[in-house]
Records
---
Amino acid sequence: MNDLHAVIKRPVVTEKITALREAYNRYSFEVAPWANKHQIKRAVEVLFKVKVTGVTTMNIRGKVKRLGRNTGRRPDWKKAIVTLAKDNKIELIEGI
């Protein structure tokens, strides 16, 4: 499982993450549930050509949702917050 494109699924863009990006140069990604911090760091450095100084991961549990009397559950997923070096930034996410 060394495919770097399989480690990072998509960027997570919210108001809170945008504030973190502007203040602390941190970016957030949805990552594969099997990925560890070393794999996430390597994937971000190789795919976006930046220097990563820190990685924080968290497992997000899916919410229970209702539609009428039926209940369902959203899937669980893993989120990684990546801190970049001082002068680095990811251009793809800046434009969103």
---
Amino acid sequence: MGEKKQKEASKSVFIFGKKNYKFMFIGLACIALGFILMSGGGSDNPNVFNPEIFSWRRIRLAPTLVLIGFALQIYAILLNPKQSNSEN
């Protein structure tokens, strides 16, 4: 009887639920996409100026995606997986 209780107590329990991990992976994908969009735009020759570094994609879109990704990470951490939809 004591062995059965020990096996039940030693079962691993995840801190987050399936919904939390889904939001975490979506947030990580947004962050990665934002950093990928920020990359590039440099010049091989340091004496030549490349105005592509100031494009709308690198200045506005990529940082916005990174911030959205971080916000999704915070939401995924704070989301309560045990909360039921039908509370009385």
